[in-house]
């Protein structure tokens, strides 16, 4: 078939299995799509959750959803994108439901199917191993690979002078933390912020809190080295136990997914304060909240997916913050060669590295 290419990809054959770097065959981009030669991809906690089978995705699978690279080929109706464009990749959305029309694609009606179903959507191009299809397009990307075929809605074009590998994590982890603070909560100068968890999402929330002008930014984590980085990024106080955090706070962002933290976090909300739930919580988990405390204090508990932002609008703003030195991503990133995907994932799982980024061979 014309324009069918050979690619390299890190394949998982079963939940918990190690990555296997393999040569696969990729179909050309279809209408409204582009093939991107990937330069880098961040390693996200959600990749680990999918790898463990906690999110039911089909296997064999190709993970990776913080891709960055250069457009190599385009299909019909690819809009203003052209081969040679440098792009960041983000999550998939349908583009026509109410949430998408309202620039809230993280709440797209088809979000789960498009981002975790993995299989080709509506006859989309596929990837094959020895003639057998491999589910791909996780988060619209499957970017633990040398190439990805993506819908144009997942791409944001950036200046060719900018470092693709450094900016790769913007497409999920960074936009989730920063978007929660700047767009969903709309933290105002003078308001206080507490962030639970000093991973990439939490530290992005800290950086965003500083950008927003929050004079008090508290950070909770059990890893001392992460807390130290948090202080460098703008946290004004740190703690390893939530009992050490003295409220009240105007805004609290939980990125840990630890349900046991939610009740004490809610108790530390100021009147009219908001607790934003950003972590990966067990589906069956619950936590007690007093209806009276919600009502009488005008408090809110909200869920946030991908920061509640539209990547096409928000990623350019994050890029500008990076340009101006307000988003020092280098402080949270460690680069790994693509072939070290297993090592990078283990470093992420252990908490040793805040944001591993796989760098593909040039």
From TrEMBL:
It holds the Pfam family ADH_N. The keyword NAD applies. InterPro entries: ADH-like_C (IPR013149), ADH-like_N (IPR013154), ADH_Zn_CS (IPR002328), ER (IPR020843), GroES-like_sf (IPR011032), NAD(P)-bd_dom_sf (IPR036291). Its cofactor is Zn(2+). GO terms for molecular function: aryl-alcohol dehydrogenase (NAD+) activity. Residues 16-358 form the Enoyl reductase (ER) domain. Belongs to the zinc-containing alcohol dehydrogenase family. This is Aryl-alcohol dehydrogenase.
């Amino acid at each position: 078939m014309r324009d069918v290419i050979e690619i390299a990809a890190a394949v998982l054959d079963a939940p918990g299995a190690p990555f296997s770097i393999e040569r696969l065959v990729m179909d050309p981009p279809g209408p409204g799509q582009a093939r991107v030669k990937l330069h880098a991809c961040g390693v996200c906690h959600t990749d680990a959750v999918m790898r463990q089978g906690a999110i039911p995705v089909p296997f064999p699978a190709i993970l990776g959803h913080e891709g960055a690279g250069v457009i190599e080929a385009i299909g019909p109706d690819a809009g203003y994108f052209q081969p040679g464009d440098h792009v960041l990749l983000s999550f998939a959305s349908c583009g026509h439901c109410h949430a998408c029309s309202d620039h809230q694609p993280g709440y797209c009606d088809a979000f789960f199917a498009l981002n975790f179903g993995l299989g080709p959507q509506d006859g989309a191009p596929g990837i094959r191993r020895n003639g057998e299809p491999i589910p791909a397009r996780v988060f619209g990307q499957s970017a633990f690979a040398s190439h990805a075929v993506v819908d144009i809605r997942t791409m944001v074009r950036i200046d060719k002078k900018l470092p693709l590998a450094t900016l790769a994590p913007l497409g999920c982890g960074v936009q989730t933390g920063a978007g929660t603070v700047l767009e969903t909560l709309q933290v105002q100068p003078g308001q206080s912020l507490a962030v639970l968890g000093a991973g990439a999402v939490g530290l992005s929330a800290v950086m965003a809190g500083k950008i927003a002008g929050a004079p008090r930014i508290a950070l909770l984590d059990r890893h001392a080295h992460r807390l130290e980085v948090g202080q460098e990024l703008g946290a004004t106080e740190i703690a390893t136990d939530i009992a050490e955090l003295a409220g009240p706070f105007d805004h609290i962002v939980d990125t840990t997914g630890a349900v046991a933290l939610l009740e004490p976090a809610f108790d530390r909300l100021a009147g009219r304060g908001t607790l934003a739930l950003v972590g990966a919580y067990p589906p069956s988990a619950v936590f007690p909240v007093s209806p009276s405390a919600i009502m009488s204090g005008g408090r809110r508990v909200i869920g946030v997916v991908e920061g509640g932002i539209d990547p096409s609008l928000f990623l350019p703003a994050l890029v500008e913050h990076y340009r101006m030195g307000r988003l020092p991503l280098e402080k949270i990133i460690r680069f790994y060669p693509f072939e070290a995907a297993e090592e990078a994932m283990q470093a992420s799982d252990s908490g040793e590295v805040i944001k591993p980024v796989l760098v593909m061979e040039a």
